[in-house]
């Protein structure tokens, strides 16, 4: 046959269909067996590991984001607290200012009132003193008049007496 | 050679035996390496995972993982099977009554061509499945319709080169090893003369065996991606 010249490495004058079949069967059987017993489980484990790593990375990423968020929150809280504290201090200061002002005003008013009261009392006392003096003068005048009437003194003496008395009263006044 | 009495099919029993040996070794390695799987890999599990990632890298360099993920198992099995097959013929060979019994199964063109043809047929199958018969057919007329005959030839050339490259490399390696072994067994001087080249060639053959396994898987993914992927 023409094709006989093309045969390579031939071990005989027959086509080894048996070898071809054997190769195919052995190889395919090996592949299936390995898929079942070796590659399948191994791929499963590798896939599992891949999933594990992916999930770990995701978890890490998530917790990183979460901690970042928390940090931000804490920072905001701190800022708020600081602002609040400042506000409180400010308020207290303002409050103190207000009450100081109030106390001073009250004290001032009180002092004014007391002064007024004192002035009023002084005036009262003076009036009382004047009226007392007046009574005294009247009494003295009466006394002087009595003496004049009793003694019959001269006109000159009389005038002098009256003048004296009046001057005395005026002095007292 | 042995003829099945029922159907009259011819078997090369040496091939069948070596295929089974290779498959058994691969299976045992993979099986025991993947016992006791942990999320934190240790020892052999690391090694197997490295192989998986390696094949994954090959696939990803050729096509989208969405399309290529289904060839992962095929790629890993091919890589390990061909590598172990290539290694089998290195340490020794056994010849009984002039028939070669222990050798690399990949040092036989029937085996390598079967694997290559399987790959090419798979690529056509997935090409049709993925893109539909119309787009698949249209690919033969791209980029120019008059290149259609070349495209047809390319398919057969791909199959031939894929299988024969592997066969040629491994077979040549074994021939040379056989010659050196003959020289080494010829006498004290022969042994002295053969020892050093023997070591060198065995080391080189290990390298070639690994490279050829890698190339086979790489080309498998290239051919499949040509048929499956849209962006080419």
UniProtKB/TrEMBL annotation, chain A:
It is found in: Cell membrane; Endomembrane system. It comes from the Bacteria. NCBIfam families: ATP_synt_b (TIGR01144). F(1)F(0) ATP synthase produces ATP from ADP in the presence of a proton or sodium gradient. F-type ATPases consist of two structural domains, F(1) containing the extramembraneous catalytic core and F(0) containing the membrane proton channel, linked together by a central stalk and a peripheral stalk. During catalysis, ATP synthesis in the catalytic domain of F(1) is coupled via a rotary mechanism of the central stalk subunits to proton translocation. The keyword Membrane applies. Its main location: membrane. It comes from Planococcus halotolerans. Gene3D superfamilies: F1F0 ATP synthase subunit B, membrane domain. The chain crosses the membrane at residues 14-34. Keywords: ATP synthesis, Cell membrane, CF(0), Coiled coil, Hydrogen ion transport, Hydrolase, Ion transport, Membrane, Transmembrane, Transmembrane helix, Transport. This is ATP synthase subunit b. InterPro entries: ATP_synth_B-like_membr_sf (IPR028987), ATP_synth_b/b'su_bac/chlpt (IPR002146), ATP_synth_F0_bsu_bac (IPR005864), ATP_synthase_B_chain (IPR050059). GO terms for molecular function: hydrolase activity; proton-transporting ATP synthase activity, rotational mechanism; proton-transporting ATPase activity, rotational mechanism. The gene is atpF. F-type ATPases have 2 components, F(1) - the catalytic core - and F(0) - the membrane proton channel. F(1) has five subunits: alpha(3), beta(3), gamma(1), delta(1), epsilon(1). F(0) has three main subunits: a(1), b(2) and c(10-14). The alpha and beta chains form an alternating ring which encloses part of the gamma chain. F(1) is attached to F(0) by a central stalk formed by the gamma and epsilon chains, while a peripheral stalk is formed by the delta and b chains. Residues 68-95 form a coiled coil. It is a single-pass membrane protein. Belongs to the ATPase B chain family. The keyword Aminoacyl-tRNA synthetase does not apply. One of its GO terms (cellular component) is proton-transporting ATP synthase complex.
């Amino acid at each position: 046959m023409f094709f006989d010249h093309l045969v390579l490495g031939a071990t005989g004058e027959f086509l080894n269909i048996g070898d071809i079949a054997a190769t195919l069967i052995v190889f395919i059987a090996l592949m299936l067996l390995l898929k079942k017993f070796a590659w399948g489980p191994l791929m499963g484990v590798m896939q599992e590991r891949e999933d594990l790593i992916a999930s770990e990375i995701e978890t890490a990423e998530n917790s990183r984001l979460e901690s970042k968020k928390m940090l931000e929150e804490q920072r905001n809280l701190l800022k708020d607290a600081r602002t609040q504290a400042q506000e409180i201090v400010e308020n207290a200061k303002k409050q103190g200012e207000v009450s100081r002002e109030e106390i001073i005003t009250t004290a001032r008013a009180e002092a004014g009132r007391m002064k007024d009261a004192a002035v009023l009392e002084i005036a009262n006392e003076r009036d009382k003193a004047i009226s007392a003096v007046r009574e005294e003068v009247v009494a003295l005048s009466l006394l002087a008049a009595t003496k004049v009437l009793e003694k019959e003194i001269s006109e000159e003496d009389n005038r002098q007496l009256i003048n004296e008395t009046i001057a005395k009263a005026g002095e007292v006044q | 050679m042995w003829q099945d009495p029922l159907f009259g099919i011819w078997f090369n029993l040496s091939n069948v035996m070596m295929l089974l040996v290779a498959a058994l070794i691969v299976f045992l390695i993979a099986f025991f390496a993947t016992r006791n799987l942990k999320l934190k890999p240790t020892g052999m599990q690391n090694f197997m995972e490295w192989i998986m990632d390696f094949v994954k890298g090959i696939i990803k360099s050729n096509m989208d993982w969405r399309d290529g993920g289904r060839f992962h198992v095929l790629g890993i099995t091919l890589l390990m099977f061909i590598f172990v097959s290539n290694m089998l013929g290195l340490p020794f060979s056994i010849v009984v009554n002039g028939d070669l019994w222990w050798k690399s199964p990949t040092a036989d063109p029937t085996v390598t061509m079967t694997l290559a043809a399987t790959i090419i047929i798979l690529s056509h199958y997935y090409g049709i499945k993925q893109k539909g018969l119309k787009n698949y057919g249209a690919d033969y007329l791209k980029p120019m319709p008059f290149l259609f005959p070349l495209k047809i030839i390319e398919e057969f050339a791909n199959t031939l080169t894929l299988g024969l490259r592997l066969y040629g490399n491994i077979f040549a390696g074994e021939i040379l090893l056989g010659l050196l072994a003959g020289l080494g067994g010829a006498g004290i001087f022969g042994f002295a003369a053969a020892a050093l080249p023997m070591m060198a060639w065995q080391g080189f053959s290990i390298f070639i065996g690994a490279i050829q396994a890698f190339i086979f898987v790489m080309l498998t993914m290239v051919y499949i991606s040509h048929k499956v992927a849209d962006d080419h």
